[in-house]
Task: inverse folding
């Protein structure tokens, strides 16, 4: 923990509605108008428009966004490919900002707190939150998947028509109302553009190595994919003290970034990758492999590149609808294991603050991941950059 974390001064609430009605009950803050990127129809550009946001109700907080990353999942939903997607909605889930106001009963965040949004919340009370084996909180899953806050309603609307909340976050907007269990309070001096990356991709990769696989010092790791998730996994393997970290990607530029995060070897991916890994490891394969491409053929390579006896393959990539992973059972019988990892197995409120502090301490080099910084109005350009694989992350800044 860095000095001063618990003692940082709390800023006064800045929500205009809060200022205008200091005596009003907090549950009934009037709605405010703000700009947000609305997915009106699948496979059409987002529309940046004025929308209304009602104040936080019980258990909720109003957050002023400072920075938000643009992730593949936003594009996946915008494109219409996600079978569980819905519209109209305000996209965005890689947010970082400042708490402006809280609803009744909120105890874990206060106005002035710097926060990272959590599409993967942590209620600390459900069966899963109480188990050390998973980070998949059960508390608000059903409503969140439908685009509603935990009470089954939405705070977002436009012209009187409700807009749904995307992933419980909707952070392509100047402000967002989120359940307090979906906010991780981070160090007040953490740069919020860097902190935003911990809301999804970077934590997913780091956690896959540090939490899900629990890479042991001195081991050999292979990471397939050098996007945000794969590069995070490379950094996670390094932080765990891995001896050898092989990164596999199709792009030499991305492999150069992987070296910057601690990869000791790099390979251009292809049909011979498994053999190349075996050749590098005395014919046995790696202690830990990670898949961060979303391609089921690569997932199979990741399984087959894991060492007999104890090799563990961690799958983080999200496959296309209906796709399946093909594994010859002999690979399992001879001691390889396969597991999946969502948000890196990270319990967000407990663990994201510590990861952010490790970045502040210089242990994780976040700056190379931010390739473009832009305003909300340019959100569709961020999607174009992503589609052309130009850079790792575009960050929208609101300040
Ligand atoms: N599990 C989770 O919680 C979680 C969270 C965020 C993202 N994801 C998923 O993780 C995956 C990676 O996300 P990202 O943002 O890093 O994506 P990305 O597209 O930026 O990176 C994927 C990388 O895989 C590489 N690649 C493609 N084919 C390859 C091959 N045959 N061999 C080797 N490399 C290959 C690409 O060149 C690219 O660099 C996606 O499927 C995404 O949906 C999962
Ligand atoms: Zn994401
Ligand atoms: Zn829970």
Result:
């Amino acid at each position: 923990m860095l000095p001063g974390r618990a003692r940082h001064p709390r800023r006064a609430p800045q929500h205009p509605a809060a200022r205008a009605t200091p005596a009003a009950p907090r549950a009934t803050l009037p709605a405010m108008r703000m700009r947000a990127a609305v997915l009106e129809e699948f496979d059409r550009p987002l529309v940046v428009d004025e929308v209304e946001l009602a104040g936080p109700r019980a258990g909720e907080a109003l957050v002023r966004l400072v920075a938000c990353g643009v992730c593949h999942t936003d594009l996946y939903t915008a494109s219409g490919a996600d079978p569980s997607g819905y519209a109209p909605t305000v996209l965005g889930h890689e947010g970082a900002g400042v708490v402006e106001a809280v609803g009744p009963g909120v105890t874990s965040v206060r106005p002035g707190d710097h926060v990272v949004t959590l599409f993967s919340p942590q209620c600390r009370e459900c069966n899963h939150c109480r188990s050390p084996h998973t980070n998949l909180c059960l508390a608000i899953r059903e409503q969140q998947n439908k685009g509603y806050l935990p009470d089954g309603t939405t705070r977002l609307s436009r012209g009187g028509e409700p807009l749904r909340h995307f992933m419980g976050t909707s952070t392509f907007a100047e402000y967002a109302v989120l359940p307090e269990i979906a906010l991780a309070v981070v160090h007040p001096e953490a740069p919020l553009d860097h902190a935003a990356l911990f809301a999804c991709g970077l934590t997913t990769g780091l956690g896959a190595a540090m939490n899900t696989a629990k890479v042991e010092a001195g081991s050999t790791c292979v990471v397939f994919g050098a996007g945000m998730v794969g590069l995070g996994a490379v950094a996670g393997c390094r932080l765990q003290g891995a001896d050898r970290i092989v990164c596999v990607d199709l792009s030499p530029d991305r492999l150069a970034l992987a070296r910057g995060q601690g990869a000791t070897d790099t390979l251009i991916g292809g049909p011979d990758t498994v053999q190349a890994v075996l050749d590098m490891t005395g014919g046995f394969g790696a202690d830990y492999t990670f898949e961060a491409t979303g391609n089921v053929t690569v997932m199979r390579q990741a399984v087959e590149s894991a060492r007999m006896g104890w090799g563990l393959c961690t799958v983080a990539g999200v496959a296309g609808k209906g796709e399946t992973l093909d594994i010859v059972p002999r690979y399992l019988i001879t001691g390889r294991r396969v597991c999946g990892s969502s948000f890196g197995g990270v319990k967000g409120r407990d663990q994201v603050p510590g990861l952010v502090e490790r970045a502040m301490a210089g242990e994780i080099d976040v700056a190379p991941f931010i390739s473009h910084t832009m305003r909300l109005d340019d959100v569709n350009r961020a999607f174009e950059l992503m589609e052309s694989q130009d850079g790792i992350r575009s960050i929208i800044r609101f300040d």
User: Anything to note?
Assistant: Residues 348-360 form the longest helix (13 residues). Confidence is low (pLDDT under 50) at residues 1-27.
